[in-house]
Hints:
By secondary structure, the chain is α+β, with helices and mostly antiparallel strands. The protein contains three helices and six strands. The protein has one domain (3-106). The protein has helices at residues 17-25, 31-35, 89-106, and strands spanning 3-5, 39-42, 47-50, 57-58, 66-67, 77-79. The strands form two sheets. A four-stranded antiparallel beta sheet has the order 1-3-2-6, with no helix packed on it. A two-stranded antiparallel sheet has the order 4-5. Zinc ion is lined by residues 42, 44-45, 47, 69, 71-72, 74.
Amino acid sequence: MFEYTLDIGSRMGNYSQKMLKDAHKHSINNKDELADSYLCACFHCCTLFAIEKITEWTDQETGLPTALCPVCGVDAVLGNRSGFPIHEGGFITTMHKHWFRDAKKTKKK
Ligand SMILES: [Zn+2]
């Protein structure tokens, strides 16, 4: 099955803060959206994988389930149906830097 890990930091795209913020919303309660997707990407471990790989879900009790990454187990999965360019290596690595690397430094929550 298709799986591909991106080299973090190899390519950075020019994406707006708003776009990165909006994309993050699609990583939560995204079961319906992912059901229509054929390609998913995790912006925590920066891996691209087929939708069939997702077997674990969280947030079942609060409404729509949220996908957990089959590789790292973090709820940072986006589907191609989200409308964001997850197939662009630069987008996922930029998301990773924005939400995980930078978040660690500033510790804002
Ligand atoms: Zn992952």
